[in-house]
Amino acid sequence: MRDSHPRRLDLRPGLPAFLLGFLAASLQIYLLREFAAAFTGNELIFGLVLGSWLLWGGIGSLVRPGRPEAGALARLARLYGAAIVLFYAALTLLRFSHKLLGLLPSETAGLAPAFGFALVLAGLLSFPLGRAFVLNARLADGDVAKTYVLESAGAAAAGLAVQLLLVPRLSNWQGAAMAGGAAALMALLALRPRRAAAPLAAALVLSAGLALADRPALEAAWRPFELVDTEDSPYGQLVVVRAADQVTLYDNGLAVFTRPDPGAAEDAVHFALLQRETAGRVLLIGGVAGGAVEEVLKYPGATVDGVELDPAVLRLARRHLPAAAAAALDDPRVRLFARDGRDFLERAAGPYGAVLLGLPDPATTQVNRYYTREFFASVKAKLGSGGVLGFALTGGENYLGEATARLLASVVRALEEVFPGGVRLVPGDRVVILASEGPLTLDAAALSARLDRIGLSTTYVSPAMLPFRLDPGRIERLNRTLASVGREAGANRDLVPVSTYFQAQLWASQFAGPGRGLLDAAAEAGPFWLLDLPLVAAAVVLLVLALAWRRSPTRSLVPVAVMGFTTIVVEVALLIAFQANFGSVYGKVPLLLAAFMAGLVAGGALGRRRRRPGRADLPLVQAGFVLLLASTPAALRGTGGEVLTFGLLGLFGLLGGFLFVAASRIVGQERPHPGLAYGVDLVASFAGAVLAAALFIPLFGIPALILRLAFLNALCGLYLLAPGRPA
Question: What is the pTM of this model?
Fold first, then answer.
């Protein structure tokens, strides 16, 4: 392998590598969005997809490249064209995944099918792209550093282009067609293949077909329901369907509201507002179109501030709500805001007589931030004297499964830390949860009297139904069940989003298969078994390797693996923390990822300028990782503002890019395999992506994970300083 070190990059021969990064990043973005739409995407799904992508990409780059040949550009053209064609096939399979699994479009698929789709579809795409990285490195005369830098630059460009230009304006399929078609066209211009143009030409033709087939395919996927309307927003795929006389809005497969559904609207409003003689100012976060507004306006003197994160939800609701419901949204007593609800609450001028949440269960960190101790504290600060917080979560009429009980207990425990002694629960298929510093009553006679006094017309929260809903025996059984699991469940927090894990456990519990057992076992295990013991095992392995492994360039693969694991975990952690602290992370994801990729480019370019990378560089970089990790808690708490998160991501990328380039060049002195270090990086990143998103962060929290990452990197630094066995 030739180790060339030009002063600056010659971009023209590097266009194929740049194109590789652009293609991989754009395909990955749209694959994740379509997985979210098909499998009610949460962090567990994203972890499985991203992990599978990294795993197969790493395997593809680890396969020996074979002998260089004159037709390398033609081989690249075939790989790029095949990846785009397979990508379109993957999108089609995902759209019809429910039919392939024998499910209705509104039904939820299990964890095992989701993992199977992730493993197969991500592998079909990332494996050839991993092979393409090796081929690009061979075209660059073995200059892995140059290939890595250019690929990272292409990925950064794709992230900005897709997220800023395509996602806000086009549907998933239309955006995917545009990104795939642009990549195919760029490949034709950059590679100019003579005998291998067919795959790229096919990709261009299929791009047009994919865009045109978007609406017909969606209609076919949602049958037997009638597709009324659809919109792909930056936050998810919104679908409005009709079945008989009901209209339902789905967001990534989860029902946002169904009209008519008076029972849900009455539960969401009346148990909370009946606690006081007057309603006053009411803040409604989410569920604006679900009927809650009409129910609040039944109270004399009530006004409503309604907040929805996604403006597309309000647009679709206005188009398809019944006339009376649409008129309620235009009532002069109602103010509507398309804002992040938590940010709105922080900035709103209080006090409110009631704060009502019309949100789904905390399946994602985006939603979970409305069920944490920190959010409840913000609500308390904006409630007036005796003000009431009310919301509902999944429950059960007469029985709670273990996963459901843990989910409820984690939220209730967080609520009780903010409102000690001021939390009340109403049993049902949806458990209504009330909190206040003032008195709360679940006495059926008292609430019936208030209904009569106010003169409310209700069907489900009514004098006839209240004695059953508020039966003291049912309430006592519910409280006793939650108390029995409350201690082990832990309180839900911004940086310890344990409720998202219990929601995933509840999801898996609905299906037979290994996924259910794995999530149950992880929930039972503590941090010692899942964090500390593996860390001790890593220390032992590093000690053995340091003492027994001869002093050779191949030893540098160990810090590459640690770096890959560390950077992907930090990325996930900082994105989740950013969401919790500042909200609306999806609008800033391209900038956050671009900051990291820019750091990779800068670090890779800096490492490339070193004529002879020394082994002393690697311990210094490991020390830098330890110092950065020690600085991360300030960003996690939001004390440094948004700019600190951007800065940290860039610095982590800088160190990671420098370490990768330096280590890969050292390894190349002994093992002239251009994909070896890259493959090790991706396989380690696979482990970090899956474990962090699906297990470590929701169960144990970000601070505990960052502390152990710092320790791991310190151990790796000591490993690099060890002399090793003489060659």
Answer: 0.89
